[in-house]
Write a structure and sequence with these properties.
Elements (H helix, E strand, L loop, with lengths): L6 H13 L6 E6 L4 E4 L19 E2 L4 H15 L26 H5 L37 H14 L3 H10 L8 E2 L4 H4 L7 E2 L4 E2 L15 E3 L1 H12 L12 H7 L15 E3 L7 E3 L5 E6 L4 E7 L9 H14 L2
Antiparallel strand pairs: 1-2, 1-11, 3-7, 4-7, 5-6, 8-9, 10-11
């Protein structure tokens, strides 16, 4: 059965971003467990105007790295009994004993209530610097988004599994879901050539293409993916195992993550996911990347918006209206 969707309004909205030079092009999709509507307005790169966006264009997914890799990897460890969310990290992780993070739990990090400082730029060499910094406030006192939460959880997943995060995510999540084009960068040359370029690299004077922009929340860098892989991932969240893949986490982890864990604190949040403001059935990952994903188990629907918005400006504001309106139309 076809999706009940105002496709024309979505096309007009996303097309505005191309027309107003918010981004050179975009790939968007809205789907359920079996159907999907796709749009690909604009071009891959204004310097290559004859090359349009395609449904399989490779994108730097920005903060979606945190759910595709970190949240997923942590879910596999929770479901196999290796990690208990409410155990203080210092009780089982020797590197944190006597450190400020020793009193923090995995649940604190997943809900952004750990009280850890903001930013990771100065710690991308090994990630160990965050183990030494004082907390901004006691754990559980306030909700404050920080990419350090993903950094610490990624290191925790490696500690408990004995594998690098990229290997853990690939073997336990991406490969079972047949997400064959999802990986950490930097990408090899032939793959990078098909990647949507992002911001200008001041050091080289050329656009980043196949190398993650910004300050990724792990020394490995950031994840690159394509729409078909993201669709497979989100469909698994709606109905685990429906597509035949059996990754290391299933409905228990998804249901636990897509419920409020922050009590009376604001803004409300689940585990690395939070409800779209003024809704109680549409969820999105924390962070505000040019790549967005939304999910509504209640409606049985998912949505994705991929853009290379940093091509024209590093100011995230021009994309704000489109990102805020897109899920409203996708889940109307």
């Amino acid at each position: 059965m076809a999706l009940d969707l105002d496709i024309d309004r979505i096309r007009e909205l996303v097309g505005e971003g191309v027309r107003d030079k918010v981004y050179p092009g975009a790939v968007w999709a809205v789907g359920d467990r079996s159907n999907m509507v796709i749009g690909t307005p604009g071009v891959l790169d204004p310097d290559r105007p004859d090359e349009p966006m395609r449904h399989d264009t490779v994108f730097d997914v920005g903060a979606l790295t945190q759910v595709l890799a970190v949240w997923s990897a942590i879910g596999t460890l929770v479901e196999d009994g290796t990690l208990r969310l409410d155990e203080e990290l210092g009780d089982f992780w020797s590197a944190l004993r006597g450190r400020p993070l020793a009193r923090v739990t995995a649940r604190h990090l997943l809900t952004h209530t750990a009280g850890v400082p903001l930013g990771t730029d100065q710690h991308l060499d090994t990630g160990d610097g965050v183990f030494h910094d004082a907390l901004r406030r006691p754990p559980g006192e306030a909700v404050e988004y920080t990419d350090r939460a993903a950094l610490v959880l990624g290191r925790l997943a490696e500690e408990l599994s004995g594998r690098r995060l990229d290997v853990l995510a690939a073997t336990r999540v991406w490969q079972p879901l047949d997400m064959t084009r999802t990986c950490y960068g930097p990408l090899p040359g032939e793959v990078a050539a098909r990647c949507a370029p992002t911001e200008l690299d001041d050091a080289t004077g050329s656009r980043l293409r196949g190398t993650a922009h910004g300050a990724p929340a792990h020394p490995l860098g950031g994840v690159f993916s394509v729409l078909p892989d993201l669709a497979a991932f989100l469909r698994h969240l709606l109905q685990p195992g429906h597509g035949g893949g059996q990754p290391g986490f299933g409905p228990a982890w998804v249901q636990e993550s897509l419920r409020i864990h922050t009590g009376d604190l604001t803004p409300p949040g689940g585990l690395f996911w939070h409800p779209v403001p003024e809704t109680d059935d549409i969820w999105m990952p924390h962070g505000s990347p040019g790549a967005g994903a939304w999910l509504s188990p209640q409606q049985g629907r998912w949505a994705v918006l991929l853009t290379n918005e940093l091509y024209f400006t590093r100011d995230p504001a021009p994309l704000g209206h489109i990102r805020d309106t897109f899920p409203i139309l996708a889940f109307a």
